[in-house]
Amino acid sequence: MKFTFISLLILLIGQLVSAVSLPRTPDVDVQSLYQSLQYNQDEQQLIDSFVKELTQITKYNGTNATQCNRCIRRLEVGHDLALLKPKLIHPVFIKWCIDNKIDDEIECRIHYGRNTVENNTYGSDFANMLYLMDPSGYDGQLYCSYIEKTCEIPATPKIDLSDKWPAKQPKHYIAPEPSNETYNVLHVSDFHIEMDYQIGSEANCSQYMCCTNHNYNKLQPPKGYNYTKNSNFTQEQLSNLSFYNGFYDDELNYHKDQTPVENVLSNTSIWQPATEFGSYLCDAPEVLINSSLKSIVQYQEELGLNFNFSIFTGDLVDHDEQAYIGFEKAAKSEELIFRDMKSTLKDLPVYPVLGNHDTYPYAQLAQEKSGFKNLMDWNAKLMGEMWQDYGWLNESTAKYAKEHYTGYSVTTTQNLKVIALNSNAYYLSNLYNYWNATDIDSFGQFQFLIDELVASEAIDQRVWIIAHIPLVQEALPVPAEVFKQIIQRFSPYTIAGIFFGHTHLDQFNVLYDGEVSNKTEENAQNIAWISQAVTPLTENNPSWRYYSVDTKTHSIMNSYNYYFKLNDTFVNDSEEPIWEFEYSAREAYNVVNWPDESPLNATFWHKVANKVNSSTEIAQTYNNYKKRFSPYVPDCANSKGCDGSYCFLASFTYKDYRACMEYYSEPSASL
Ligand SMILES: *[C@@H]1O[C@H](CO)[C@@H](O)[C@H](O)[C@H]1NC(C)=O
Ligand SMILES: *[C@@H]1O[C@H](CO)[C@@H](O)[C@H](O)[C@H]1NC(C)=O
Ligand SMILES: *[C@@H]1O[C@H](CO)[C@@H](O)[C@H](O)[C@H]1NC(C)=O
Ligand SMILES: *[C@@H]1O[C@H](CO)[C@@H](O)[C@H](O)[C@H]1NC(C)=O
Ligand SMILES: *[C@@H]1O[C@H](CO)[C@@H](O)[C@H](O)[C@H]1NC(C)=O
Ligand SMILES: *[C@@H]1O[C@H](CO)[C@@H](O)[C@H](O)[C@H]1NC(C)=O
Ligand SMILES: *[C@@H]1O[C@H](CO)[C@@H](O)[C@H](O)[C@H]1NC(C)=O
Ligand SMILES: *[C@@H]1O[C@H](CO)[C@@H](O)[C@H](O)[C@H]1NC(C)=O
Ligand SMILES: *[C@@H]1O[C@H](CO)[C@@H](O)[C@H](O)[C@H]1NC(C)=O
Ligand SMILES: *[C@@H]1O[C@H](CO)[C@@H](O)[C@H](O)[C@H]1NC(C)=O
Ligand SMILES: *[C@@H]1O[C@H](CO)[C@@H](O)[C@H](O)[C@H]1NC(C)=O
Ligand SMILES: *[C@@H]1O[C@H](CO)[C@@H](O)[C@H](O)[C@H]1NC(C)=O
Fold it and tell me: Taking every annotated instance into account, which residue ranges of this chain make up the domain Calcineurin-like phosphoesterase (predicted)?
């Protein structure tokens, strides 16, 4: 929608740069990290000697020292420097990185340069991490295994949470039986708005995300290259290339420009020009987001769905290169999409979580007790205020969200409790997670979750949990284990649903009790629903879903998925996409002979996972849905593209997944 960004920024930028709460040790000059940098002679000497030391470790430290040891040793040196003079972390690590060709200069500056509002550098967070962490212990091992990938993943300490809750009673091992009535809930995920999307720009680029004016393909097309001749479209289709700009007005009417973007095809340095509604290697232009929301409203009306509420499982900001994501873009993306959701979905309550992209700098979130939480508070405040303004959260819930990393709990009009968590608290790219990393709850989110679950269990209330990142991927081992044990304790009696996004793929994870060799029906305890995405990145069709939910137990009775064929919009003359029904899970997987009156619970999905494992046909069905029938769906019978599907579906944490892959010797193709 036409949207003018009224700048909260002036306010927020001030906060971002200045609101550093000092850590407890008063003699450490953390403020200086964020001030403009001039080095005196002594400092310059220190810089030189530290760079020399890091270089020696990198280059010459005996042929004996393993890469893991060297990584740890560098962290130790960095930690010493962070205690001595934190502002020198940036010049030292940047110079070390460039001199030793650890990365190209831009990447070195992004990783180690001090945070600014213009570029997504996270050197200040790196410096804060070095200051806080214990490099010689578990923290250092963990960092070097997950970030530098040079150490083995350290053994996860034994975690026993049994004193955190009342003992599990026999009745807690059985889920309540559904009634015969249902209501509907919308689930949308991963919009990833590409604000600088440009029709005619390179849609086949060498960067991770394409379709902006700064994207390019490192290989020039051959002389005389002509897209219209090289594409496989017919002459008639080619006369309909979608090079018109369009927009949606407040009533969701679509307006197409009278004239197409000019001279697109005469640019012979472009392999594949981006068309209006998006492309398979690009994030979502705003018209795609509007079109998705419009299709939701239209299907709701047409089918009389009357959604009771909606969940949004995160990721609003795009996958542009870090150098092109500034604070303003991140905040604006968040604001813009929530605004579009509110103006389209009207009174439908949306219960959102933030994703790993929905923060600035990327993925960073500091614990209250780290002393650095203020750096990111702008985000929780902005979100809490917005979600309250839109009537999604009431005042006290919004207040909680603002103070607790956007986490909260709400009870719906149907008496279901929805608990929302911020998954950056367990995400491997959040540098603050390498501080005191054996702490079972450094953010306090898990205690909150336990408290809410204990309270609900006591009154036989059922609960849904929503977060962005599934534990099967990119979650650090200690919080993943804690989260898993909590879910096990409250399944299946209290926890009626777990919902994630993040992978952009239509997937699920079954949670089993016991060992890897014991993925049996009796051991299936719960499942996580991983929603597909609206963004096409990478090589998927845009899609969303809704659930029919049992009125009494809030168990999921069925899921219904909608999508459109993005490639059809390349040659439809910039007309609106045509959204279609894709599939419903109960019918699509009826091979498992599931009774009509039973919910699509862990037992159902256990059976589906087994079929995916044993039948190429069902593996193909799953992989078609996973990518929503895009042109890039692998052929399960004639390629290795579907390998690894079973272990992904039959694992809940990354540790489970690795154990499964090892046990079944499954080739690891499709994580
Ligand atoms: C190499 O490592 C071994 C075993 O850790 C040690 O005994 C030996 O002294 C080391 N050699 C050098 C040159 O550091
Ligand atoms: C070289 O590495 C070893 C262990 O890997 C460490 O004990 C030693 O201090 C390192 N030397 C330097 C100069 O960092
Ligand atoms: C649900 O079951 C009750 C009792 O068996 C019955 O009266 C009612 O009509 C059923 N409702 C629906 C929607 O089938
Ligand atoms: C055209 O089709 C051929 C054969 O299916 C394929 O190899 C080629 O990649 C396609 N070209 C484009 C531009 O999609
Ligand atoms: C081209 O677009 C027009 C509408 O703008 C449509 O009627 C026609 O069917 C399209 N042709 C093809 C081959 O898609
Ligand atoms: C590319 O080929 C089409 C015919 O398929 C032609 O109309 C167009 O002028 C060509 N473009 C260039 C830049 O040569
Ligand atoms: C995409 O670019 C690569 C070169 O980087 C080229 O080989 C390939 O054919 C291009 N594909 C399309 C569909 O244009
Ligand atoms: C950071 O942003 C500024 C201003 O947009 C730009 O001039 C500079 O090149 C960027 N730095 C990097 C590392 O991309
Ligand atoms: C580090 O974690 C432990 C628990 O593993 C906890 O007791 C301790 O308070 C934490 N330290 C800090 C500074 O938070
Ligand atoms: C495997 O599952 C069975 C039945 O649920 C249980 O009795 C047994 O203890 C489990 N074994 C392991 C190793 O988890
Ligand atoms: C799933 O539902 C069926 C039928 O109601 C039930 O037998 C089974 O125990 C349930 N599974 C779980 C894990 O709750
Ligand atoms: C889009 O892709 C699908 C799946 O590969 C294919 O069936 C369809 O024909 C394609 N549409 C166009 C316009 O090429």
Answer: 305-504
Q: How far apart are CA 257 and CA 254, in angstroms?
A: 10
Mutation pick for ligand 4 pocket among 232, 237, 539, 571 (CB with most ligand atoms within 8 Å): 232
Q: Which residue's C-alpha comes closest to atom 2 of ligand 12?
A: 631
DSSP label at residue 256? E
- Give CA–CA dist 486/630, Å, rounded: 37
Residue 439 CB–ligand 9 contact under 6 Å: yes
Q: Return all residues near 93 (Cβ < 8 A) that are at least 6 apart.
A: 54, 78, 108, 111, 112, 123, 126
Instruction: Tell me if the pTM is above 0.90.
Output: yes
Measured in Å, residue 185 CA sits from the centre of ligand 11 at 21
Contact (Cβ atoms closer than 8 angstroms) between residue 503 and residue 473: yes
Q: Which CATH class is domain 164-192+284-434+443-663?
A: alpha beta
Give the pLDDT confidence of 375-430 residue by residue, as tens digits.
Answer: 999 999 999 999 999 999 999 999 999 999 999 999 999 999 999 999 999 999 99
Q: Which atom belonging to ligand 3 lies closest to the Cα atom of 181?
A: 13
Mean pLDDT for 615-631 is: 97
User: Separation of 518 CA from ligand 10 center, angstroms?
Assistant: 6
Is residue 14 predicted with pLDDT exceeding 60?
A: no
Phi/psi at 610 (nearest 5 deg)? Answer: -65, -40
* Ligand 5, atom nearest to 236 Cα: 13
What are the residue ranges spanned by the domains of the chain? 5-146, 164-192+284-434+443-663
* Residue 109 φ/ψ region, left for φ over 0, alpha for ψ in the -120 to 50 degree band, beta for the rest: alpha
DSSP states of 605-649: HHHHHHHHHH-HHHHHHHHHHHTTT-TT---TTTSSTTTTHHHHH
Q: CB of 231 closer than 6 A to ligand 4?
A: yes
Residue 100: DSSP 8-state = T
pLDDT tens digits along 302-334: 999 999 999 999 999 999 999 899 999 999 999
Q: Is the CB of 488 under 6 A from ligand 7?
A: no
Q: How far apart are CA 114 and CA 118, in angstroms?
A: 11
